[in-house]
């Protein structure tokens, strides 16, 4: 069996954490070291990359995970179509919420409104 790799905690350099537990450790250590956490920033390409705020821009420019995230963005671009003002003259009428009711709900609410007659023996 191959020994597991360790990572050094950015909040406390005395902490050596197995990679499999690193994310969990970062979250707990961030809570336990709020003063240090205020001086640190999280990389937008990998949440396990925690660097001093002053070095964040430099880190993100050379981050090893940067290319994979940018490739995903270009492969599956988010397509959003917004209604134009020309299509709808009254912008306040664009969304009309409706109450969604399940078939079972209507039966139950009907029972609540008109309770059934209780039948007793001999009636």
Automatic annotation (TrEMBL):
PROSITE patterns: ZF_CHHC_U11_48K. One of its GO terms (molecular function) is protein-containing complex binding. Keywords: Metal-binding, Zinc, Zinc-finger. Residues 6-33, 40-67 form the CHHC U11-48K-type domain. The keyword Zinc-finger applies. Residues 65-97 are annotated as: Disordered. Residues 82-96 have a biased composition (Polar residues). This is Gametocyte specific factor 1 like.
């Amino acid at each position: 069996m191959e020994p597991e790799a360790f990572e050094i905690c950015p909040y406390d350099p005395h902490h050596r954490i197995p990679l499999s537990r690193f994310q969990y450790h970062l979250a707990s250590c961030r809570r336990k070291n709020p003063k240090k956490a205020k001086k640190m920033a999280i990389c937008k390409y990998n949440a396990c990359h925690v660097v001093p705020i002053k070095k964040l821009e430099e880190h993100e420019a050379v981050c090893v995970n940067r290319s994979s995230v940018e490739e995903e963005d270009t492969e599956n671009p988010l397509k959003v179509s917004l209604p134009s003002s020309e299509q709808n003259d009254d912008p306040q009428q664009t969304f009309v919420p409706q109450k969604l009711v399940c078939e079972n709900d209507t039966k139950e609410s009907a029972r609540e409104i008109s309770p059934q007659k209780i039948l007793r023996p001999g009636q």
